[in-house]
């Protein structure tokens, strides 16, 4: 194996990042990486260190805690000058974090998740019919992408007539490379205005959806106006592309070895465990969001100064042989927890929803297409060019019908 650190960008890394993370875990588990704009960050790749950083309340999330070089490089959110979009739980620390998270948690009560499941089943049945009728189905374009956006629209209560435009704009936000950030910033104008209008409509007429809850919390003084629109925007950003990647990556994991697909067809009880195993093996979020030590600390034997940016590699942690036996193997039901939804105070609020969507989507394909196969060699598949997300642009298949 090479003695020099691997590249963390470029075609080789994008088509298969796992060898690079293996090298880092073995040789430099808390590694200094250069970032665009002259900034740099610590990249944490071992499971034990990753878990410790995610659980540490002194690892701050407020971008104001980042050091001057990181802030000057503009690597935070591309819309970080907009208080109406960034005052959300993922960018703050306790006590604001606790307050914001409590209100948004209302989206995911058992009653609401049940209603969302029915909606997911309806949307999926329609999408699967279209896949069956298609000459060249692509499971990212035809299923993994449209299902989660329909569910986010349900959660926020986006009216039917606005949905096509909402979908189109969300596709721009889903651009992931640093180079494309300007286009993303431009599109946020639209979301800023649209979510503000949606909020005004709820102020005039209460509704039984998450935005309705957030607006009530604003009326009672619990949330500011910026916090309402920022939370709605966070649910879109955090809940869409991640779930697209989960469904796409899971189908890739299953179909690259047809015996895995056949095994699941023969024993559908393995569906839930297979979702977890896919999350561990191909974590949709390659790295968790930025963290900044509030005071000097040590991670994996490396000294970190206050404010130095830290990235925690969830993709690498899932493949750490120091934590998992046969770490690269697919063993649904192994029962080992993974870090793909994070850990600690910022653990994903949408984890149950994402799991449900993956089970509904993949379950419908198992029922309908037991002979499903990849239509191209896996070396031809293109992954998003990102160090943050980990997902496929397309997954062409043959349905075997
Ligand atoms: C937080 C992953 C789906 C909403 C997180 C975090 C991870 C994650 C790793 C923690 C980030 C950190 O600590 O830096 C995922 C994955 C998903 C998914 C892999 C799909 C497979 C969703 C969905 C929603 C959602 C469907 C909502 C509709 C959130 C929110 C947070 C979050 C609001 C911030 C929580 C906080 O800061 O307290 N997610 N997520 N996520 N996720 Fe998810």
From TrEMBL:
The keyword Oxidoreductase applies. Gene3D superfamilies: Cytochrome P450. The keyword Heme applies. Keywords: Heme, Iron, Metal-binding, Monooxygenase, Oxidoreductase. PROSITE patterns: CYTOCHROME_P450. Belongs to the cytochrome P450 family. This is Cytochrome P450. It comes from Streptomonospora nanhaiensis.
